[in-house]
Amino acid sequence: MKRFKRCAAMACLLLIALLLLEVWRCKYLLTVTQYALTTDKLTAPIRLVHLTDLHNSEFGKNNERLVRMVSRQHPDLILMTGDMLNGREEETEVAVNLVRGLTETAPVYFSYGNHEVTHQNTFRRDLTVLFEEAGAVVLNRTYEDVTVNGQTIRLGGIYGYCLPEKYYATGEARYWECEFLKEFQNTEDYTLLLAHLPTCWIRNDNLDIWEIDCVLSGHEHGGQIRLPLIGGLYAPDQGFFPGRSSGVYLSEDGKKAMVLSRGLGSGNAVPRFGNVPEVIVVDIVPQRAMGEE
Fold first, then answer.
1. Which distant-in-sequence residues (6+ apart) come within 8 Å of 267 by Cβ?
2. pLDDT attached to residue 236
3. For 91-107, how does the pLDDT look when each residue is reduced to its tens digit (9 = 90+)?
4. Using CB atoms within 10 A as the burial measure, which of 168, 188, 221, 248 is most buried?
């Protein structure tokens, strides 16, 4: 009996040690996930690095490990889709220093998440000024036509659910979001939208209705806790076992895509588990370069 109790105690300690190791792994390690999208609107490939949901996490002093990892991907653009700080914490230096470090690798574009909105409302601080002083271009219901590798793409940012006009009848669509997106999509160039909230792009018909080639999103944290064969445990706006909590999701015709990142930090008291922080690399490739006719 004593031997059984000792073995049980050892097994419990081993299990606790493994659980703590996994929590540590999902707080401090980094992984790169790569996706390739094709389009007939480009003649040369473009490489993007997508970062989201840092929540004041640090990977080395001043996020040096994260900056080095991004630099090794040789991106043409670095795109950040919000929640890089915490809404109820006054701390901004972690996110600002990261932006400052990344600008040495490639141009940085930043759009807001719910935590930036909360932070501004709580502390009455203009985050656009802070991030632009650090070297980023902040896109907050705005867009720019950007030249990359000799070709123009339209790059925009918005914080909102982005439901189209047909949802006016239910009171869910917002006029200012629809007006911005109608103007944003009015181009022949490749369109790339930074939109922190992914729900209506994967649960409604946003991808099919809006003429936007690629949407980058975060917010879901990959379900925070990820279980084998199941995926994410819980995602904001979707609830338990959301299914769609990370990856690439396509429109019905397969021509438009949303890339949903698991993000980098936690943002709440529940630690990440089975869910290593993620740096997304997206290669947007001309169709002919992929051997398509």
1. 53, 55, 83, 86, 115, 221
2. 85
3. 999 999 999 999 999 99
4. 221
**pLDDT tens readout for residues 200-226:** 999 899 999 999 999 999 999 999 889
Residue in the block written with tokens 């709440």: 268
Between strands 231-232 and 31-39, the pairing is: unpaired
Asked whether residue 161 carries a pLDDT value surpassing 70, the answer given is yes
Q: CB under 8 Å to 269, separation ≥6 — which residues? A: none
Which of 252, 218, 253, 250 has its CA nearest to residue 237?
A: 218
Angle between helices 64-72 and 93-102 (to 10 degrees): 30
Q: What does the alpha-carbon distance between residue 77 and residue 271 come to, in Å, rounded to a whole number?
A: 30
Quick one: DSSP state of residue 87?
T
* Cβ-based neighbours of 1, under 8 Å, separated by 6 or more: none
Determine the pLDDT at residue 65. 97
First-to-final CA distance of the chain: 72
| 278 and 263 Cβ atoms separated by less than 8 Å | yes
For residue 8, the one-letter residue type is A
Within 8 A by CB and 6+ apart from 51, the residues are 66, 70, 78, 79, 80, 81, 84, 261, 264, 279, 280
Backbone angles phi, psi at 247, to 5 degrees: 120, -165
CA dist., res. 174 & res. 222, Å (int): 27
CA distances from 281 to 187, 239, 256, 264 (A): 25, 27, 17, 14
- What's phi and psi for 253, nearest 5 deg? -85, 0
CATH 3.60.21.10 applies to domain 30-290: yes
What does the alpha-carbon distance between residue 77 and residue 167 come to, in Å, rounded to a whole number?
Answer: 33
- Contact between residue 143 and residue 159 where contact means Cβ atoms under 8 Å apart: no
pLDDT confidence of residue 4: 63
Cα separation, 91 vs 182, whole angstroms: 36
